[in-house]
Amino acid sequence: MLRFLIARLSMIGVTLLVVSGVIFVVTEILPGDVAQMMLKQEATEERLAALRAELGLDRPAHVRYLDWIGGVVRGDFGDSYVQKQPISEILPRRIGHSLVLALFALALGVPVAVAAGVWAGVRPDTLWDRVVSTVGLVGISLPEFVTGVLLMLVLASTLHWLPPSSHIISGSTPLTRPEILVMPALTLTGVLFAYIMRMTRANVMEVMQTPYVRTAVLKGLPMRQVILRHVLPNAMLPTITIIATNFGWMLGGLIIVENVFSYPGLGQLLLRSIQTRDVPLLEALSLLIAATYALSNLLADLAYTALNPRIRYA
Amino acid sequence: MSHQPIEGAPLLEIEDLAVTFYTPRGTVRAVRDASLTLHRGELVGLVGESGCGKSTLAFAVMGYLPGTAEVGGSLRFEGRDIARMSEPELRELRGNRIAMVYQDPATSLTPTMRVGAQIAEVLREHLGMSAEQARERTVELFESVRLADPGAVGMRFPHELSGGQQQRVVIAMALACDPDLLIMDEPTTGLDVTTEATILDLIADLKTRVNAGILYVSHNLGVIARVADRVVVMYAGQTIEEAAVRDLFKNPRHPYTAGLLSCVPKPLAESGAVTKLTAIPGSVYPAGEEGVDACLFADRCPSVRDACRSEAPPMAPTDVGSSSRCLFWADVRPEIWATGEEREETPAANGAEEVLTAKSLRRFYGKWKRKYIFFGPRVQPPVRAVSDVDFKVGRGRTLGIVGESGSGKTTLARAIVGLVPLTGGATVLHGEELERDVDDRTRGQQAAMRMVFQNPTASLNPRMPVRHAILRSLKKFTGLNSRERRERAVELMEAVGLSAVYLDRRPDELSGGQQQRVALAGAFAGNADVIVADEAVSALDVSVQAQVLNLLKEHQREKGASYIFISHDLGVVRYVSDEILVLYAGHVAECGPADDVLAAPSHPYTEALLSAAPVPDPDAEPTRIRLEGAVPTLREAFKGCCFAGRCPRKIGPICDDTPPPARVGPSSPEHLIYCHIPVDELAEMQRSGVGLR
Fold first, then answer.
1. Are B157 and A308 in contact (CB under 8 A)?
2. Residue B92: its chain A contacts at CB < 8 A?
3. Residue B108: which of A4, A11, A211 has the nearest Cβ?
4. CATH number assigned to the domain comprising residue B428
5. What pTM did the predictor assign?
6. Among all residues of chain A, which has the CA nearest to that of B61?
7. Are residues A55 and A177 in the same domain?
8. How many separate domains does chain B show?
């Protein structure tokens, strides 16, 4: 097990190294640079050169890369060009925000989606199955900005149940005003629901056909027990992978949702770093998001192992 | 025992049962008209070929049929009709009063639960036991089904147990609440012969210990003969004969039963002559058809008369106390089927020209390589699936290869054909050494050696008419033009007993036997000199199996082809083979002329295999040699005899330390036995039955 973990973690390290290289190369190829973005109309050749020298942009690319990656290994992501403060000071708060939102959305969405999937999968082709499946399809077909805006119109503008913006006033945390999390989380659930529900439904239907479920039924067990003990653990195995992949996406990829609700998470920061050519910040964020994906997949594999006694890593 | 008067009301009474499934793809009349009674303490065998409705009947007794099923007639358990019970009433019966043992234990246990917990939940549900009581009772149950280490087995997961152990767990689960009725649906079908024998012993023993009625469903007459008191035969959804076990095997009173009995390859007769197997022509009355006022077996019956086609025969009592659904039961005797034809004597081995020679064939799986470049799990040494196997096949002769699953039979077959490259050794065809990979061999060499697989459904392209498979072989291996190929395809289909119309059918429109015959036509297409048949008849029903076996023999007689015939079924191997090679853990245990290998003296492993094979004769002496466990997976060269760990005749440390010498059998110099026990001692031991561990 330890050997497996070490192996997997080092593979993740290698993956991240490759990712960092790719990101660096891409930002090099992009036209324009930070100096131009920062100076805008005031850009003269001298001022540009001066700023580049100040930011260290006049050094050759590979030197800058090595310098940067060396810093990353020591936990120093460099300074944001735009915000003029160390990235390692900007990130923690944002990571916290994103993590809170992601966990909140998962806690809201996963149980509902799994329950609906089981409900539909146990009675395929009934009215209930159709209803649940249609709801799922609608959720997956509507873009997040549509669902988000609809929720805002109904819950905030019309009913006034929730604040329209999820902006966080400096000095407070999302946990002090949990109500701001509800709408973004609901929007995310709309998307998650369809994926997880459909996956669960398909797996439950498959497992329901297996001889071991027949055995369980013919033992005279109540249906509830058959489903909880014999169907669910087996049907959840593939679903776990889906949840893990979505977790990675929810941490780093919520550009639309966070912007619709002005929620200060990683997605918003990412978008801003692209708009302002804040290369060090962009690099740090991309690396962070890649690491999240890799780690949540590792977690999924570990959960899979825990649930599936047939797989044991040496 | 069979004629014992049985007191009291029957436990299970099935009267005129009919089960019809209405599916989007048509109506399936799985059971048309079935009646049987079962008393406490009795074991009734329900026998029939696939599709005859026997499993549907078994599940109907559990009240477990899909919602689309319509049940007619009555199914009474202690007088209450199961088909009309509510779900809670059924739940009360299932697992408690009526319990079931299933065909495939590996898939019948929940993979994510420990086996002990799977039994405990039955006890807790029905008997209201506490966790502690349930645990104790589970251990007792494991003991009663003779599981080794009953205290610890419960903590294992199903995949950590062997097939035999899994089936014991399933049986223990069925026995948990002391059921009144036990239904066993092909409980040994997926198991190795050796394991089957031990499970049958257990069932025979249970019969005397538990006070339950047992309904035992099987397609295997040998198994039925071993365990049943009374037998009910089913055909096309009808029960067609019911008799005490001895009467059924000695005096069948329905032509179908008589036919089934003569389809099974018999043990070697005294004279050594083997009669040609009876094949029941045609195929089973289709389940999609509405019943007619006629005998459903009429179209396949050799002694059919006009009356058979104009009235539906009722179940009627016969002279031997059985009942039969045949109007002319009095005229049924084995001769209506037997052709009396004797197997033609094949030329002696030394006279035959050598076609294929295998020289110390080796096939190892796995490499000494780490999964990730530097890290990752330490890789185990390769698995030695086949180690140093030598054999020769003469022209027009058949080499049978037998062994349990895991003994390396399939790997050996695939290595010969070149589907998996050899790790060492050489295959020589017509004096030329073949390349190890089939793709590197010449067209001619590929055409000369063809393989037939176990599962014809999986080896034919489901989207293409079967014509495609045959024409492709013809195109690849013959120089015929397209018109000649089409003509040849028709000839080939006729040669395997199928009319040309089948060429345009897709595989799913054919039965298993028809599919396998198409596969054979494909193999015959290139006029192959050697056909490697890997369990080619194992998935087929006995009547169809006989058709295919006869077809193979006929083709051999006409074309002089040689076969390598792999099977776990000794009866079948004995029927087709001239020479037999017994494989154990990838090593040759014994080889030589078929008759010599199967007669004493033989290798203790061969002896155990022979002893385990069920014989379709209720008077057969129960045999005594039983092998527990499974074939070991060898990862290192074995110092001694690889059978030593399971050998009932192990003589001492020498078996573990020294490789067994090849001993020459008494009647033929080609008969080799790899054993430390000298041949004459072995013969003496096997005659007198002494020296067993």
1. no
2. 220
3. A211
4. 3.40.50.300
5. 0.84
6. A218
7. no
8. 3
